[in-house]
Write a sequence for this structure.
């Protein structure tokens, strides 16, 4: 994994919209939600985005659809825990990064994980451990800059483990706790953490699944994140009503909770 292995994409003409972010790193560069976050930000001409992910061709195609940005792609595998520090060091050596969006994620059906514990390990590495090793590698650089924003994609699944997807829920609960602790540890450094908790998002990750109540879309998540970036919020639920609903989810008696089919 090296930043030398990149693909440059020239962005389309810009319209002069404005943002505070000059250089952005999207981990999980082909993520639908990540792409919608980029589109929703008010990026001024000349902003750079580094799409870090597995499929360079797909990311280059998606990058061509991002107006206002100069786009590059770099290889990034969330499960390559040994490679994260080197990649991050190389990217920061090229210049400051204003916004890091940690969006890599995998949703494998629970039944498949029950039958293949190693696949469950991969899910945990992708949804939790890889975020930890990558973001902790970025933290010293961000502290040294004295500014920056880390956006972490948690989930409503972090609130309470459901039997229908408890390995995914465990990973998201761990990631959510990590992000909250990281936010506190960075307090006063000039670096901020924005924790995003979407509900069911109708898109590539949930393809073929019937939408859950209060389902949302990647575009709605992108818009909510962009608004939170501007407002300085530290947590955003999408849709917003999930924040209130989550209290109810926590309080539901366990015999009832256990009966939930999904
Ligand atoms: N969709 C939902 O309902 C929902 C709800 C709440 C939270 N979230 C979270 O939001 C984030 C973005 O999800 P999304 O809806 O945008 O789904 P998505 O479009 O499937 O994006 C997930 C991205 O993660 C990447 N990824 C998976 N394994 C990876 C690995 N080992 N190394 C590097 N990248 C890897 C995928 O790469 P490839 O393109 O190579 O497959 C994909 O680009 C995830 O963390 C997800 O858990 C999603």
């Amino acid at each position: 994994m090296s930043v030398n292995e990149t693909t440059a994409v020239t962005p389309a003409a810009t319209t002069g919209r404005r943002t505070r972010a000059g250089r952005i790193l999207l981990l999980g560069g082909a993520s639908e939600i990540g792409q919608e976050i980029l589109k929703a930000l008010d990026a001024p001409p000349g902003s750079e985005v580094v799409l870090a992910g597995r499929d360079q061709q797909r990311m280059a195609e998606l990058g061509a659809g991002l107006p206002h940005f100069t786009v590059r792609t770099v290889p990034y595998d969330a499960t390559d825990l040994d490679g994260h520090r080197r990649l991050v060091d190389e990217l920061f050596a090229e210049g400051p990064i204003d916004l890091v969006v940690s969006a890599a994620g995998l949703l494998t059906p629970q039944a498949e994980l029950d039958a293949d514990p190693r696949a469950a390990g991969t899910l945990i590495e992708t949804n939790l451990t890889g975020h930890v090793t990558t973001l902790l590698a970025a933290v010293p650089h961000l502290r040294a800059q004295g500014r920056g924003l880390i956006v972490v994609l948690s989930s409503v699944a972090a609130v309470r483990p459901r039997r229908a997807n408890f390995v995914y829920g465990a990973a998201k609960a761990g990631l959510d706790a990590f992000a909250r602790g990281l936010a506190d540890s960075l307090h006063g450094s000039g670096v901020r953490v924005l924790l995003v908790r979407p509900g069911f998002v109708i898109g590539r990750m949930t393809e073929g699944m019937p939408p859950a109540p209060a389902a949302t879309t990647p575009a709605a998540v992108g818009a909510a994140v962009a608004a939170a970036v501007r407002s300085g919020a530290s947590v955003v639920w999408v849709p917003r009503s999930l924040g209130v609903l989550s209290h109810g989810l926590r309080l539901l008696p366990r015999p009832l909770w256990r009966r939930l089919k999904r």
Residues 1-21 have pLDDT under 50 and may be disordered. The first helix runs from residue 32 to 40. Residues 28, 30-34, 53-55, 76-79, 103-106, 126-127, 153, 155, 198, 200-201, 203-206 surround NAP (CB under 6 Å).
